[in-house]
């Protein structure tokens, strides 16, 4: 879910032409969840093979990655590692929400409420180790790089951008900005239009680019204060203060400067105060690795067909056409410098 900060942070709309030649550190888990949510039947049933194994994520990862490469946008997928202990409660809450959503989905299917069924089906999706393992195997077969983070994927992605090994992070969540990413790109996998839940209407979806330095300057705050605002609003590591949204959190930090002073000023009971110093450390001193390799290699057509066609019933003809598109792209070699992009 991440931190809800969109109402506070300025951004600009960009198009794919402006991303040409750029490398993006993509939050892999976030992207996979999107594929699982979007690639479904009208009643919410995901794409599956003959055994009932869900394959929506493989379809989305395969075709979307090729589309990005054809646009000369180079994805570097970053996978989550071991989550911080403070995230345990959030993970458990999400698991319960998914279970409840699955029950509502099955009930909606029984009574023929198709729109409701799709809504609940999207909320019931779960990413397990098998999904992650096959996603990595497919990327390897495609010759597309991925990095395994030791902990939070968005922290690692932010670090990659900070080092100049990618131009921006890409995620629907804002956490990478809190982790210090100079830029965040949202809606990378939501091009065009999106159907509004429960309505026969569609909403235009644009690529949104957030610049951390510009945001901090416009708000006249530090990154540390942005993290404190997030703690007030609520993060994956703590519940927010009731009644405090992004704008109110900003006003409070501007007035009192730090989150601990806000707690004191509002007389927040001690038992309701989150371990803010530990949360600050997660964002400001994240657990990341520096010995990673970013390299695009030749695709392995046979391995791609083995994963998609032989194992999961994808159309051989369609996959071969996509492989031909992938093989024709000049994406080989290793990035050396992004100086000219800044």
Short description:
The chain is of the alpha/beta class and 342 residues long. The protein is 46% helix and 11% strand. The protein is built from 14 helices and nine strands.
Q: What topology does this entry show?
A:
Elements: E1 12-14, E2 23-27, H1 28-38, H2 56-70, E3 74-79, H3 88-111, H4 114-123, H5 129-142, E4 146-148, H6 153-162, E5 168-170, H7 175-178, E6 183-186, E7 192-195, E8 202-205, E9 207-211, H8 212-219, H9 223-233, H10 246-256, H11 259-265, H12 276-284, H13 301-310, H14 316-327
What would you say this structure looks like, in words?
By secondary structure, the protein is α/β, with parallel strands linked by helices. It is 46% helix and 11% strand. It has helices spanning 28-38, 56-70, 88-111, 114-123, 129-142, 153-162, 175-178, 212-219, 223-233, 246-256, 259-265, 276-284, 301-310, 316-327, and strands spanning 12-14, 23-27, 74-79, 146-148, 168-170, 183-186, 192-195, 202-205, 207-211. Mean pLDDT is 88; it is low at 331-342.
Mean pLDDT over the residues: 88
- Give the proportion of residues in helices: 40-55%
Shape: globular
Strand and helix order: EEHHEHHHEHEHEEEEHHHHHHH
Computed Rg: 21 Å
Q: Which residues sit in consecutive blocks of at least 5 with pLDDT less than 50? A: 331-342
Largest sheet: 7 strands, mixed
Beta-strand proportion: 5-15%
Q: What's the end-to-end separation, in Å? A: 29 Å
Please count the helical segments.
14
Number of strands: 9
Structural class estimated from helices and strands: alpha/beta
Strand order of the largest sheet: 1-9-6-5-2-3-4
């Amino acid at each position: 879910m991440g931190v809800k900060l969109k109402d506070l942070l300025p951004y600009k709309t960009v198009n794919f032409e402006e991303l040409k030649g750029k490398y993006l550190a993509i939050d892999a888990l976030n992207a996979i969840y999107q594929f699982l949510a979007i690639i479904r039947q009208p009643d919410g049933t995901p794409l599956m093979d003959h055994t009932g194994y869900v394959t929506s994520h493989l379809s989305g990862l395969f075709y979307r990655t090729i589309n990005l490469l054809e646009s000369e946008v180079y994805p570097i997928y970053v996978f989550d590692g071991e989550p911080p202990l403070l995230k345990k409660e959030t993970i458990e809450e999400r698991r319960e929400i998914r279970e409840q959503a699955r029950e509502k989905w099955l009930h909606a299917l029984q009574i023929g409420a198709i729109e409701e069924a799709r809504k609940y089906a999207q909320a019931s999706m779960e990413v397990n180790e098998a999904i992650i393992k096959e996603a990595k195997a497919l990327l390897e077969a495609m010759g597309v790089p991925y990095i395994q983070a030791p902990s939070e994927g968005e922290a690692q992605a932010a670090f990659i951008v900070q080092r100049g090994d990618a131009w921006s992070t890409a995620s629907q969540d804002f956490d990478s900005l809190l982790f210090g990413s100079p830029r965040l790109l949202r809606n990378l996998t939501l091009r065009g239009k999106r159907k509004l839940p429960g309505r026969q209407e569609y909403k235009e979806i644009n690529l949104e680019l957030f610049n951390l330095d510009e945001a901090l300057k416009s708000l006249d705050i530090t990154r540390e204060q942005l993290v404190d605002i997030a703690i007030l609003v609520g993060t994956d590591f703590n519940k927010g203060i009731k009644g405090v949204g992004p704008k109110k959190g900003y006003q409070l930090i501007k007035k009192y400067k730090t989150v601990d002073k806000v707690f004191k000023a509002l007389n927040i009971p001690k038992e309701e105060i989150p371990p803010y110093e530990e949360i600050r450390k997660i964002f400001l001193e994240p657990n990341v690795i520096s010995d990673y390799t970013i390299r695009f290699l030749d695709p392995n057509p046979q391995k791609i067909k083995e994963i998609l066609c032989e194992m999961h019933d994808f159309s051989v003809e369609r996959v071969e056409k996509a492989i031909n598109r992938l093989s024709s792209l000049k994406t080989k070699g290793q990035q050396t410098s992004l100086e000219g992009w800044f």
